[in-house]
Amino acid sequence: MTFLAAVAVFPLLLAALCVGAGLLADRLAGGWVPGALLPVLGLATLVGVTQLVMYPAATAPAAPWVVVAVAVAGGWFGRARLRTLLAALRATPWPALATVAAYLVALAPVLLAGRPSLTLYLVDTTEGTHLLGVDFFLHHGRDFAQAGNGTSSAEYLQLFFGRHYPAGGHTLLAATGALLPIPFLWEYQPFMAFLLATSAGPMWLLLTRLGARGWWAGAGAFVASVPALVLSFDQVGSIKELVALPCILALGVLVVEHRRWLAGAARAAVPLALLCAAGLSAVGVSFAAWTIVTAGVLVVTAVALWREAPGTAAPWRGLLGQVALAVPVGAVAALPTVVALGDALGVASGIATTSDPGNLLRPLQVRQLAGVWLHGDYRTAPIGRSAKATDVLTVVVFLSAAAGVFGMVRRRMWALTLWVAGLVVLWAVLTRAGTEWTDAKLLLLTSPVVALTAWGGVAYLAQGRAWAAAVAGGLIAVGVLGSAAVQYHEANLAPTARYDELLRLGRDFAGKGPALATEFDELGNYALRQVGVSAPGLAYPVGLPSAGYGHSVDLDALTPAQIEQFPLIVMRRSPFVSRPPSDYRLIRRGTYYDVWQRDATAPRVVEHLAAGDASTAAVAEVPCADIRRLARRAQAEGGSLAAATRPAVVAVDAAAGAHSRGWFDLNGALRLGTPGELTTTVDVPEAGPWELWLDAQTARPLAVDVDGRKVGSAASSTGPPGNTQRPIDVTLAAGRHTVRIVRPGGSLAPGDAAAEELTRVGLARDGAADGGTLVRLAPRDYRKLCGTPVDWVERTAGTVAG
């Protein structure tokens, strides 16, 4: 039910809310807005409404019902227009069909996986921060004093949104997503796909003005809405840019439709104000660049209209009236940005000058403007035949775009020509002044304009050379949709069951934290937000050493004092990591996670002595001399000893085994580039039941056999570093055993071609991943620990009874 609600009910609800809000804005503007533009206008209107309602904390929780009220009011006051639009839709369904098709392509990996998820998982880790903001705005508005401090989740909220990070998309998702009883986590990807799909309406309107007709215009609107770079940023969760993009395209429609409103009443400029305000709210003050380009073209157009009718009054009075209304309407709709303009400028300046490339591996290439990229990762270049095909199809797109510009000039479509030229100049100028990260965003926001112009070239060719138009249009469609197919096949999907478990833990332990998480996971930062979670692998934990962003840690790397400031510890089940200190007790065992709670009645830990090397195994023998020194200090201070004894763990690095030629060592992990197999040996010290664990990122199930006997498979599952798969039970005799892991051939399943890695293979006695057994003893009995495999030995305050 969650899946259907997220991928079907939620987008239909969004569509209804946006159309209703668009009808209300159209009514306020005098009823001139084209029907295909209403969803985007409504989206912009709802961004403004949610920004206002979620500005103070007192009204923020009412935002969902305010959004519904706005949409219902629009439906009521615009009911006559709505009936007309429904009749027009039956006669011309192409813009609606293009919108649905774009949504299906954008969400295809999730739809065909049959479960709620996120796409391009781990390519960009900021989705967790976006979701933190979404949830916070719903409950507290912009009152960041309620965000707290001292935890990673609180620090992220303060660092981003507390400094007026653009949040137009976040408040929109908060208000609309809260209308359904499902987590924002599973609404996020359908929301992104919906944002992308709303571009189809403005695309269709612009293409019809460029001469495309009927299904041909619908096909063009669909294809031009899903160029490769846009689809990549959609799947990586770039919420800011995906809200701004349809607003930019809608501004192009206002330019083309200038005769319908530019010489009209002052209220006719309301749509312009709302679209610009939504862009400012979504991406910040940088949207002023697109606003200035559009405003400049409109001024030139107004002068041209006046010269066409020299006997009429100069246009300045009407323009001043529209400006006098549009400016305050836009300022109110973007109030949080306008009120904190200095901070917003600071955020924009920081983004524009940062040397941090974000998730980019290299600067993106100008040719990515064409929307063709026959490679699953937009951050790296295609190779081999894919590279050649990409180059050929890119040339076709650019030639078609040149034909589109020529056609606009031939048809004397000066307003649209100026607007397209202005955006290209804007891209070139800002790219020269920008950074690697901002350049990528500029390519993203300009790519649909290139796609639009290219399809306009197809429409121009169709007027006299139908065969050339068919060839060009077919090649463009093959290039763009082929790129989408490759992305679909390589879209790494987030594990649903594991995050459902984390969400349950967040609800069940709400208010009982703060909690320490040992695993780097920004989505976990969101899922456990109600507990108040910190992790050394996240960028801003308080009171913890830096493990480097993106790195999970073992508890042995922390001191007892650093650990014991947390009442709770949430950690992945794994035989490769250390048990929490002796003054913590296990209170929840899940499929993927354990929750430990500090025991106020247990002796306080004074000193911690780790045994094993966490990079290979958490269990080892501690030299007896080290245990004796610890015991002497305990004896001198009236303390005692504690130790965690655990069953044996045998681990081997995957890269050290014999493997297929298509598999290669990448930073200590084995990258599984092709179907193939790994063969490695393990020495089992004793006979009995064992658990076979894989530390791996898998898109395809990996078959596992021991000594030629199939024992099970590791289901497809991905995660942060240290991603242990669910164990496979196997009974083994003492001695050496051969483990073989096979990666099968591919299929058409979503994400089937995603990157896979295998880091290590481990065998653990049953219970080794469950924390082992806690032993307490007097210092005089320390010899009992000599020669015994343990996780750690501790010196604790207080004596042991008996």
Structural write-up:
It is a single chain. With 802 residues, the protein is an alpha+beta fold. It has four domains: 2-490, no CATH class; 496-601, no CATH class; 603-647 and 767-802, no CATH class; 662-765, Galactose-binding domain-like (Jelly Rolls). Strands 9, 11, 12, 14, 17 and 19 form a six-stranded antiparallel sheet that branches. The protein has a five-stranded mixed sheet with strand order 2-1-3-5-4. Strands 6, 7, 8, 20 and 21 form a five-stranded antiparallel sheet that branches. A hairpin with a 2-residue loop joins strand 15 (702-706) and strand 16. Helix 1 packs across helix 2 (38-53) and helix 16 (288-308) packs antiparallel against helix 21. The mean pLDDT is 88.
Indicate the radius of gyration in whole angstroms.
30 Å
Low-pLDDT ranges: none
How would you classify the helix and strand content by structural class?
A: alpha+beta
β-strand percent reads: 5-15%
- Shape, please? elongated
**How many strand segments?**
21
Distance between the termini: 57 Å
Average of per-residue pLDDT values: 88
Question: How many discrete domains?
Answer: 4
Helix content: 40-55%
